Amino acid sequence: MRCPECSNTSNKVLETRLSKDRNILRRRRQCNSCNTRFSTQEEMVRGDLMVIKSGGRKEDFNIQKVREGLQLALRKRPVGDDAINEAVENIKLSVSDRLDREVFSHEIGEMVMIELKRLDEVAYVRFASVYREFKDASEFIETIQSMQSVDYDSDQQ
Ligand SMILES: [Zn+2]
Prior knowledge:
- This protein is of the alpha+beta class.
- It folds into 2 domains: 11-43; 50-148.
- It has helices at residues 63-73, 81-96, 105-119, 121-131, 137-148, and strands at 11-18, 24-31, 37-43, 50-52, 58-60, 102-104.
- The strands form 2 sheets. The protein has a 3-stranded antiparallel beta sheet, with no helix packed on it.
- The longest helix is centred in the middle third of the chain and has 16 residues, at 81-96.
- The chain binds zinc ion.
- Zinc ion is lined by residues 3, 5-6, 8, 31, 33-34, 36.
- The site of zinc ion (ZN) has 8 residues, from loops.
- InterPro entries: ATP-cone_dom (IPR005144), NrdR-like_N (IPR055173), RNR_NrdR-like (IPR003796).
């Protein structure tokens, strides 16, 4: 990191900021020789995120699979692409915070369900009934009942 004025490589960091998407680190620096202030940007390079499956097997995290899961659950539901993209971004942001670079597959399932519950109750039930391993029927019924207390939109079924 050279000073743009005198090319000195010694400087101090005055301020560090992380961009909103958490991918770029912006630093305000001051040259230790001529006191010129300048900014630098550093792109964050992180290791690949691994998904730990229920059997303990690991595989690369694939955001496309999350998107496909959401699209499948939301098939023929009145939810637009923008809303799906936002949900995908929310999940991407949640998993990219993982310092250990590992996430359990059931945690991703939970994140998907949180987004679905927000987007569309019918799609939420559809997804939950397929992906969540209900311990028994009463647990499933409890989930349905807790949702019936939520106000539905006009597309009640
Ligand atoms: Zn300088």
